Amino acid sequence: MHISEKEIEIRYAETDQMGLVYHANYLIWLEIGRTKLIEDIGFTYAGMEEQGFISPVTDVSIQYKAALRYGQKAKVRTWVEDHGRLRTTYGYEVVHEDGTIAAKATSEHVVVKKDTFRPVPLKKVNPAWNEKYEEIKKVTDGVRN
């Protein structure tokens, strides 16, 4: 399993009246982490779009564990939790500098043709990308998901 890491400097604008990171900003950080993972393995989301495909979010789940505040740094860890014929699930941890987990999350995505929104297997869009996801996806109990 490959885990990508991206540091986030928490800006004042990302906090709420309580001085905590506003919950919706975690979604932005997940996208930053996902983009970093994709770039780390040699691909770009922009490249997929240039080919006429997009990968919308079909589901997202976040569990908030320990608040982050302005002035702190966080790290987003991202991996391929599962990858099937049509769906890819990414796993995430947003952690404090000391390693304390601030949030855990997953997001599910499909690849679709930009003009019709019809689902297309990643294997047909980019066989090398699909193969890399198969190679790096999470392994549970010695079995690939």
From TrEMBL:
Recite the UniProt keywords alphabetically: Hydrolase
Which InterPro entries has this protein been placed in?
4-hydroxybenzoyl-CoA_TE, HotDog_dom_sf, YbgC/YbaW
CDD domains the record matches: 4HBT
Gene3D superfamilies xref list: Hotdog Thioesterase
A single Gene Ontology MF term assigned here is: fatty acyl-CoA hydrolase activity
The family this protein is said to belong to: Belongs to the 4-hydroxybenzoyl-CoA thioesterase family.
| Name the record gives this protein | Acyl-CoA thioesterase
Species for this entry: Planococcus salinus
